[in-house]
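Q: My labmate handed me this sequence with no annotations at all. I'd like to see what the chain might look like in three dimensions before we decide whether it's worth expressing. Could you predict it?
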Amino acid sequence: MMFEQRDPTWSQDDPTAEAEVDPAESSQKPDRSSMLRALRELEAAKGRVHRDAQRASDEMREKLVIQLLPVLDNLDRTIRAATEQGDAPAVVEGVQLVRAQLENVLRGYGAERIDAHGRLFDPAIHEAVSMIPVNDPRSHGAVIDQTEPGYRFGDRLLRPAKVVVGRMVPAPAVTHPPPWH
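A: Here is what I predict for the chain of 181 residues:
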């Protein structure tokens, strides 16, 4: 019987090359515990690869959303300015539709808008850009105006909402003229 001649380019370093089977080793079967250990290691590696791929995907989506937020802000500014100036209503409506479409795309990528109007100031999600005096105690510490919305991506804050916060000012003391006047 003739033996097959081996390919001279074959190398033991080539992981795709066929492994040589030693007849003495082939009679020994791996024990159950080593097979289970190898299976657990394989499952753990598979889990790590999946988590790493998911993390990379989330980071790319987050980066895209962060880059598109200023575009959305500029559309909001355009709509506000055009409305205040009384510009062509059809153009304003068109820009509003584009803005809504972009916001839907961002929402599809996992971005969530943080609206702060009327809520109590929360430094974890709001950035106070100014404070204004208020006379109503219910408005003290509340967001009076929002200059820029904030956004979340899952449980991470991408950008805090920029807000104006109310601050209670004491009412001026009423002074009565002295009774001898």
